[in-house]
Each structure stands twice: as C-alpha cells, then as structure tokens.
Amino acid sequence: MSTASPLRQRDFRLLLLGQTTSQFGAQVSGIAIPLLAVLTLDASALEAGLLAAASTLAFAVIGLPAGAWIDRARRRPILIAADAARAALLATVPLAAVLGVLTMTQLIVVALLTGVARVFFDIGYQSYLPVVIGRDRVLAGNSAMETVRASGQFAGPGLGGWLTGLLGGAAVVLVQAVTFVVSAIALAAIRTPEPAPSRTARTHLRAEIRAGLAFVRHTPALRATALTSAVANFGFAVAAAVSMIFMTRTLQLPPSAIGLVVAAGSATVMAAAAVTPWLSRRVGSARIAWLCLVVTGPAGLLVPLAEPGWTAIAFLVVGIGAGEAGQVVYAIASVSLRQRITPDALLGRVNATMRVLIMGAFPLGGLAGGVLGELAGARATLWVCGVLTLLTPLPLWWTLRRVRDVDDLTAAAS
Asked: Which residues does the UniProt record annotate as the domain Major facilitator superfamily (MFS) profile (predicted)?
C-alpha cells in the first residue's frame, strides 16, 4: 500500500476543496435544521424522529438501483448533478421562511428529496475516489476526507448554534446551499480521465443488482461490516431523534452552548481521522476497524448520565467526542477495506448494497427513537442507544479477530 500523500495531486485537492466546503455547510445547517424544527416550529419528539428518518429513507428505496445505474455511467457528472440538486432544494427553506409559509411538512419533504440526491452522491463518491487517487492510496484519501469532515464538525456546530441564535435556523440553511454550489464547481474542474464503463457485458438491471448483493453476501468481511454499521447507525439515529430535545429541554442548554458542546466533542474526531493511517499501520488495517469501537464505545454511556449544570457539558463532550472518534476511525477503515477488495466493475453496486444495508437502519432508528422518546422520555432513549453501542463491534470482531491487515484478505481471495 502506497504511503505517498494524495494531497500532492491537484485533482484530489479539488475533490477535497469541494468536500471541505460542503461538509462545513452540512455541519452548520446540521444543527440549524433540528433547532429550527424544535424551537421555531415546536416539533414533538415524533416529528423530530420523522425529520431524522426522512433524510435517509431514500437509501432503502432507491439505493440498490442507484448503484447499478452508477456502474453504467461516469461518476463525476452524477456527483455534480447531486450537488446542484441539493443546493436548489435547501434554498427553498429560507425562501419559505421569508414568505412566512415554512412548515414541518416542507422540512420533511426537503429532507426526503435531498436524501435522494445524497444517495447518488455518496455511492458515486465512494466509487469515484479510487479513480482520482488509485486503489493503493484509498485509506490515505479517506483519512484526509474524514479529517475535513471532522474539522467541519469542530467549527461548524459552534458557528451554527451561534448563527441560529443570531439569525434564525432558516437563514443558516442557506449557508449549506452555497457550499454545495462550491462543491459542484470544484468537481467540474477535475481533469483526471475517468474510463467509460463497459457496455459489452451489460445485463438487465435486476441481474446487475443481484451481482452486487451476491458479492457482499459471499464476502464475510463485507457481511460483518454491513451488520456492524447497521447496528451503529440504528443506535445513532435513535439518539439523533431525541438529542436536541434532551439538550434543550432536559439539560436546558441554549443553542450557542449546544453548538459549543458538539464542536468541543468533535475536536477528538478531527484528531482521530488524522491519525487513522498511523493507527492502521501500528494495529493493522483490518484489526483497527473493530478495535476502535471496542475502546471508545463505553464512553457513550456518559451522555444519558448528564444533569443540568456545568457537569452536563463535561459528560456530553467526553461521551460525544469519544463515540464519534471511534466511529470516524471505523468509517475510514471499513470503507477503505471495501474499496480495496471489490473489483472496480462491481464497486458502484457493492457500495450501493452496503449503503442500503447501512443507511436503511437510519429511518428505522429515527422512527424508533421518536416513538421511544414519546413513551419513555429522552434520557431513557439515550440509555438504549448506549447499550446498542456496546454491542456494535461484535459481528466484525468475530469475523476479523484473526486478521491483521486488509492485504491478508485480498491475498486469501486471490
């Protein structure tokens, strides 16, 4: 595996520029939209759960055919179109707010449609990255991308909370719309030639989808990764449905404090993403995927222990920071593993299969979190999430417990 920095490549820097701006905007509006729903539109726990579920429902509905369509086309034009669509959709939120017609229904519909665009972007991006930097550097590339995402988490929520308090959540959503425009422009400037997909062996869409499903089903490492990620995302979505309610109503934190709590906790995420290549070399590029979750999972139990006052901030920072640090190391390691062991002709469909299995847990978790929040309260719901977090690494540990590096998997398959 090459250790040369992908930052030396102009086109990777452009890809990184687009992700830097869009991820920063996503973190700014990521806190603004839930606060907009809770504080301005007075959303209930169930409505907050529906909003969280809506943004990921498209993965379950169109994820598999999207992967087959992406394998039939060049990926860069798809990424540009997805960015442009998300920018246009998000721009309708501040427009509706100015006209005084913004409703929870519109927020949920915008979340659904931007989720469709996200399906094509996420699957296409994970399939496009190896084209730009090569398969031997995907771990370093994913690490750089996750470092960017983490830096957005560090600065974005604090700024988002402050701007929400100053300007209102609807105005802050416009920031993310602009960042998607910047991302589309950066992608359009990339010059690396992308090979045209093969047309000679094309079959029916259903058969192509089955090929991606079969590869995942017959590859133990991918099966275990899918199960581990699904459990993790289900637990995260359960917590996301009630976290804003817990912090605003139970802990009585203002928007600016919530932004600072999330930002402070995310500082560990930025560090974890940056050191993942080093950890991978020291611990093993396959082993690190489950070990990081085992080490950081117990810290998540601190979140439901928080009580109103300054101790709440400390518990939230440690719990959120440790949990997200483990998740970012896991995300880099697991996606890089998938990109290295999957043939390029199948990569779009395999990415789609994995994203459907993984992201399909989000709407289920969001709905479950909303219902559980209504019945048992936010704190009890967060305890359920903490227990799920402890169970998350078990499938991957069982499958990869005797494997150190991804190269051992690829050698065994050849």
From this structure: 221-414
Q: What is the DSSP string of 289-337?
A: HHHHHHHHGGGGGGGGG--SSHHHHHHHHHHHHHHHHHHHHHHHHHHHH
Domain CATH number, residue 158:
1.20.1250.20
Kindly state whether residue 199 falls inside one of the protein's structural domains.
Answer: no
Residue 380, classed as helix, strand or coil, is: helix
Q: How far is CA 332 from CA 61, 66, 133, 258, in A?
A: 25, 23, 15, 27
Q: How far apart are CA 384 and CA 138, in angstroms?
A: 35
- Tens-digit pLDDT string for the chain (414 aa): 555 677 778 888 888 887 777 766 666 666 667 777 777 788 777 787 788 777 777 777 887 888 878 878 888 899 999 999 989 998 998 898 888 888 888 888 888 888 888 888 888 887 888 888 877 778 888 787 777 666 655 555 556 666 666 666 676 788 778 888 998 999 999 988 887 776 555 567 788 888 888 898 888 999 999 899 989 888 888 888 888 888 888 888 877 777 777 666 667 777 888 888 889 889 988 899 999 999 998 988 888 888 887 777 778 888 888 888 888 899 888 888 888 888 877 888 888 888 777 777 777 888 888 888 888 888 889 998 888 889 999 999 999 988 888 877 765 544
State the residue range of the domain holding 118.
6-191+204-413
Q: Crossing angle, helix 347-359 and helix 104-133, to 10 degrees?
A: 150
Paired tokens of 287? 């082993």
Whether 93 maps to a domain, the answer reads yes
Q: Hunting for tokens 């990869």 — which residue is that? A: 400
With CA atoms as reference, report the closest residue to 22 among 86, 113, 111, 112. 86
- Domain count of the chain? 1
- Report if residue 198 sits inside a domain: no
- Is 196 a domain residue? no
Tell me which residue of 381, 407, 352 sits closest to 60, measured CA to CA: 352
